Amino acid sequence: MIKPTLFAAVFVSSVAVAAPPLNYDIYVRGAFNGWGTDNVLAYQGNGVYQVDILVSPGNHAFKVGSRDWAAEWVANPAASVTVKPGAAYPLATEAGPEDYLFTKQTATFRFRVDVSDPKHPVLTVAKLDTPAAAPARDPHAGAGATAALTFPTWDGKEETARFSVRDPQAPLRSYAQSTTQQLRDPGPQSTTYDEDASLPQVRSGNLAFDALFALAGHEMKLDSVQEIRDGNYNGGAAIPCDCFETGEKWHYVWTRDLSYAADLGLAMLDPQRVRNSLLFKLSGWRAGVAKAPHVAGTPDGLQVVQDTGSGGSWPVSTDRVTWAFAAEDILETLPADERAAFAAQAFKALSNTIENDRIAAFDGATGLYTGEESFLDWRDQTYAKWITDDIASMASSKTLSTNVGHYKALTVAATLAREHGDKARAARYDGWARDLKRAINARLWLDDAGMYSSLTAAHFDGAPLHKFDWLGQALAIVTGVADGARAKRILASYPHGPMGAPVIWPQQQDMPVYHNRAMWPFVTAYGLRAAIVGRNVAVADAAYDALMRGAALNLSNMENLEWLSGQPLLLDEAHPNLIGPVINSKRQLWSVGAYLGMVIRDVFGVSTTRDGIDVQPFVTAKLRGGVFAGGDGIALYNLRLQGHALDVKLVLPPVPPAGTSGYYAVKQILVDGKPAGSNIPWRALGAHSAIEVRLGDLVAGDTSIHRVNADPYEEAPSVFGPREPRIDGLARARGRTTLTITPADAQAGITYNVYRDGKLVAANVPSGAWTDAAGSAAACYAVEAQYAASGNRSHHSVPRCVDGGVAIAATDARVDANVAIAPANARFAEPHFANWGQPADRFTVRDVRVPAGGRYAVQVRYHNGANQVNLGISGGVKWLALKDTSGRIVAQGVVQLPHARIDKANTPTVYSTPLAARLKANMPYRIELSDFYNMSYLDSNRSFSAAGGTDGQSNRFDIYGVRVLAIDGTEP
């Protein structure tokens, strides 16, 4: 299930009725209510359930489902249906793609489900007349002080945010904020909030700047909860946890969301709550799980949880290691008496995570870790269109952001190993980190682009793609993976629109706004941090502007915004399937952390170290001449760190002339009136200390920035990449290979690049036949499309290999398994070993021979229908060994068998990730498949509602056979 969007108000009539036909509650769950359970269908009698929901403009995905998703009803289990008001839709009582409701105006819709026949429910949706709202009261009436921020819009207009306070001299202010911009969710165009005595306050001489900081603190408090919930866990019931929930529409804790939010700002302000949340994302083995022979780590299995997701979670996705970003911050901010216990847990969990990721997700041939892009986890949005039919190809690719996450995990674990006296492990993790940094720079850096590739192509290709993401670039800079020269080029090269930097570049056609065509505040905040490292004033100013604009005009720190317009919803009536952001939440946790960190860590320059604090403010000339023009200083009061209450004041130089660029150097730092350096140890701070930072000369800095623009309603080649082409024909004759390049569409101005074994061998060729005179009989090919004018490129095509491979079906006499073979039927076209994969199950293939010696890839042909391709924790993760006649292991390792597309009529088979091996001609080999583990083996998932949860671990799938494919020269 994709994540939620809009708020919905509910109006339900109460009528005395007979007993309902269902013995459980049923809900309308969708993008207008956070996929939650706010909208229960109330029984009206005569088999009819009903609920009225206020829905804001958009094209909203939804389903009818029970609290625990055990019941899931959709109009068509094979394809999404756009529901028209007034029409009747029989519902299939099984899982399937979301249905959609489109509305161009905020309106109330009545959802009625007739369950007279519980096996054949029928849905109707009717639009109701919505009463006119009462005239809004002026939220600024009677204010003692007011301020306004005005922002230009993409279409030549202006939007204004106004701020007011009744008593500007009060120690703790109460603010009102209003906006002229149409908000994402139905509701008033204003809000109020108070400063909190437990949090710092800002006094800058600019009421709007002070207010926006207070807004972020207020939203941090709203995200601070005593219980969390998610419909997929604990039957949807609350789970006690003094944690941070993820946002107004997200009432759970997710590993990456929490970790980035904590790293950006929350760890400094509430380390105990961050610690609690981090510990919630650790788990050991569930009861009854026996550790498989090749699994590493301590007997309890304590490790970081990879959340539900693509192909059934880990190791298709491996960015659980981002946990280390937050853990490092907590180790610097927790009081000493609490730190030791957390450090011990963190060391064990990180060590177990690292050791098993090394087994399951490390590719020794490239020196990189496999796994989906961090946070960019909606496959269609950032990967090739064909990837949803081959999730194993996504699992085998390598991505920048996730590999930088592994680098951070290794460096943090090495530090903890030294702290715990484990010199051997410290040396190992230091070495792995050093090698990984070298591999990232060798394998992912694209010198022609001046940036790192976001991801490589799949196995049998492996080339770094000309696809880029701002989070990965920024993390490479802030972690030190990118050296100074590379950092400088990245900051100057990554494209920025008029409202800020998109999270990916270029954008992808035929996809709505979410990760695609979007700007995310937390990613912008990492871009700001990277700009400060690289002293790029233009990129820093763009980030400051974007973060302030987003919070000011939306009355909240939103999840994401359309990148060219800055809108929380771009309503494209002509293309309702492209409307978005399709998902958006107020007070999104990492956006809140981003804003708080922008003020504390970036503007005031305060960050924590193990021994104290570091003070390095980054105030640009644009800030000084803009929001800070009203006085000679700005102050941050009541910043509480390690038992110290700190007041930090920046003494500002005179306002510079208009148009001046640069940032101000630190002239002097005083701690309680005494000179100090930028690194201030805890021992130099009292219970309440005043830090004064006097800024001096203006430093030019770097002003390089790559600006782009386009109409947000057009898929312009200047900001989009082309659709990926196909290889429709591949033939080899007389030592030459001819492939046929088929365009995805008839767009003009596109040429094609050909890759053999992951290397570019032909550029700017036309579509149609292309012949390679140099490739071997074991070569594999892929092609990409490129706009001639902009240079923007597509994803690569599905790779095609010359060798057809040696295929062995499940029915072959050489195949043996401990489960019975299932016959073919209408849905499963071939005989297969059904539901294979219990921990004790075994599968072997003997006498496997290849016709010529060389490098080969061994793959299992399978189908895994345990869940949909975007959901769950039940991706197949097994150990594959290839042995010779003496029993010597020729090759072994983890293979992944992720969730695959489920087709009601005829379920297609797919191939696992490959195991590479060097084989001799006509020699008999033996293939053995045995257990490893997936996330369903962890105790934290015992209450999960789908496969791998309440019914026990699930690492099962259907096996149709194996193939051995010649791949000389490629990286599988």
From TrEMBL:
Record's signal peptide: 1-18
InterPro entries xref list: 6-hairpin_glycosidase_sf, 6hp_glycosidase-like_sf, Ig-like_fold, MGH1-like_GH
Stretches that traverse the bilayer: none
Mannosylglycerate hydrolase MGH1-like glycoside hydrolase domain sequence ranges: 252-531
Record Pfam families: MGH1-like_GH (PF22422)
Keywords from the named record: Signal
Region entry Disordered, spans: 160-198
Entry-linked SUPFAM superfamilies: Six-hairpin glycosidases
Ranges of biased composition (kind: Polar residues): 175-192
Protein name listed in UniProt: Esterase
Organism in which the protein naturally occurs: Telluria antibiotica
